[in-house]
Specification:
Strand order of the largest sheet: 3-4-7-8
Distance between the termini: 83 Å
Oligomer: single chain
Largest sheet: 4 strands, antiparallel
Helix content: 40-55%
Radius of gyration: 32 Å
Shape: elongated
Length: 516
């Protein structure tokens, strides 16, 4: 049985959108499920749109997500340029493969499936404007090509002369006239398109000796033995041309199957999710932070504090579901259950609150030590004086209330720094004359309490309060205010156990002294 081989082929024109990462993920899952190969190929034939750093950004993004290519990228994270056993189809950067494409374009001319076109950009623009003036549109197709400057209309001698003397000519595909192209999409089913709706696309340009996307894409997929092409639905209109190209080359038997993924939509479902939507609504649309040439910073999921496994889980469910109630899947689990049959045709709405929920779910699955290390990596100096046991106790106290590790400090700063002040609203609400008589008695009680553990504190302190008829809420909220600096936070007994008796008493005495 033929090995399953799929590819992710982004263009280095800027940061990789999260929709692009989803495409890479689905390709990866589909390949790994069958023990196949996942290939990264950089499609950089459009030199005018090239953005420095984009290629490196793509590779780093995939590495962060754990979506590791089997071919195309070496162990140092560089695109492979020289063929070897592990990377037999190198180079995997299209601009370094430019020498191979012309012969395939010329092959199509020789079989009368393509032709040389000599119309200048200015001439074509004039035809477009003329059509617009007549409230019509100009298309280079089966109808118009018979009256334009190309090898179909010019004498052979004239064609040869222009090929030798001019550098602005192109090779265009010759779309068959009035023919129904029947296609099959693994997600969308059967599709039919009449060729009368298609134009004669440019395949190769003499000016820069580079192919267009359509030719390079088909040739490389063929040479790299790609078995399935899983890509975004923006490429669906190109599918008839790609079918016709495979046919024209005589590659029908090795033609890959196609699957076109639906768009990622704005939270309201009205249109494609864009960077502008993320900026407006307060969430990133890129996996990693991106800084453009003007110094403008675009947020990334990594820098916003998302775990890579949570980000992958988020993407997996944007357009696919397992058919069960389970929502949390590791990458390895996704490999086992993923199928294109359960990928939906309609667009997938992005839900930022759900994304945060996923990260919280993974945070709760982390071990205490993992979270301690993550916390230290963010707050190193602030935590330097405390051992892992103490930091771990702090983490356990607040982990259920956090979505991100970067929220830890704001949730438990009081465990590392005594309050410098007290919430005025809490003071006005709880520090009344009657409680001023009670808290010193509570402090004396705590001083003699042993062992100073959560269970003992809860039991004995509640008994003290109730037996004296003091009012549980009044006393506990005042104690929390003194220990934390505000009346909200974890349970008082939990806080006391972590702080220890000495620190608890010091904070109570300090608060009584300051508030009077």
């Amino acid at each position: 049985m033929k090995q399953r081989r799929v590819r992710f082929a982004p263009s280095p024109t800027g940061p990789l959108h999260m929709g692009g990462v989803r495409t890479a993920l689905y390709n990866y899952l589909y390949a790994k499920q069958a023990g196949g190969k996942f290939i990264l190929r950089i499609e950089d034939t459009d030199s005018q749109r090239f953005v420095p750093g984009s290629e490196e950004y793509v590779i780093e993004s995939l590495q962060w997500c754990g979506i590791v290519p089997d071919e195309g990228v070496d162990k140092e994270g560089k695109i492979v340029e020289i063929p070897c056993t592990e990377h037999p189809h190198a180079p995997y950067r299209q601009s370094q493969r430019k020498h191979i494409y012309r012969k395939y374009a010329e092959q199509l001319v020789a079989t009368e499936n393509a032709y040389y076109a000599f119309d200048t950009p200015e001439e074509l623009e004039a035809l477009r404007k003329e059509a617009e003036a007549q409230k019509s549109s100009f298309t280079y197709n089966y109808h118009s090509r018979t009256s334009l400057k190309n090898s179909l209309t010019l004498p052979a001698e004239e064609v040869d002369r222009r090929l030798q003397e001019e550098t602005g000519w192109t090779i265009r595909f010759k779309i068959p006239e009035n023919r129904m192209v029947k296609m099959k999409d693994l997600i969308r089913g059967d599709i039919e398109v009449n060729t009368s709706t298609l134009d004669d696309k440019v395949l190769w340009k003499r000016a820069d000796e580079l192919p267009t996307y359509h030719l390079a894409n088909i040739v490389d997929d063929h040479l790299m033995e790609i078995t399935e092409v899983i890509r975004g639905e923006e490429w669906l209109p190109s599918l008839p041309l790609h079918y016709l190209l495979y046919e024209a080359f005589g590659w029908n038997d090795s033609q890959p199957q196609f699957a076109h993924l639906s768009l990622l939509l704005k939270p309201d479902g009205k249109g494609k999710l864009s960077k502008r939507d993320g900026d407006r609504l307060g969430f990133p649309v890129f996996p990693l932070q991106w800084i453009n040439e003007d110094g403008e910073i675009s947020r990334g999921y990594r820098e916003d504090g998302y775990f890579p496994e949570a980000f992958v889980n988020i993407l997996a469910f944007l357009g696919w579901n397992p058919g069960t109630e389970q929502e949390i899947f590791t990458l390895e689990e996704l490999v086992k259950v993923f199928s294109l049959e359960r990928v939906v045709k309609s667009g997938a709405r992005f839900n930022h609150d759900k994304a945060k929920w996923y990260n919280q779910a993974y945070l709760r699955r982390k071990s205490t030590q993992e979270l301690v290390e993550a916390f230290r990596s963010l707050e190193g100096d602030r935590l330097a004086a405390y051992d892992d046991n103490y930091v771990g106790a702090a983490v356990e106290l607040i982990r259920e209330r956090a979505y991100f590790v970067h929220e830890f400090w704001s949730l438990c700063d009081f465990l590392f720094e005594p309050p410098q002040g007290y919430d005025p609203a809490g003071v006005n609400k709880f520090w009344k004359d009657d409680i001023k008589e009670i808290i010193p008695q509570v402090a004396l009680f705590l001083e003699d309490l042993e062992p100073f553990s959560k269970g003992v504190i809860e039991e004995k302190l509640e008994y003290l309060i109730r037996s004296n008829g003091w009012g549980m809420g009044k006393v506990m909220n005042t104690l929390r205010l003194f220990l934390v600096g505000r009346s909200s936070g974890p349970g008082v007994a939990d806080i006391m156990e972590v702080l220890g008796k000495k620190e608890v008493l010091q904070r109570i005495i300090k608060a009584i002294t300051r508030l009077g």
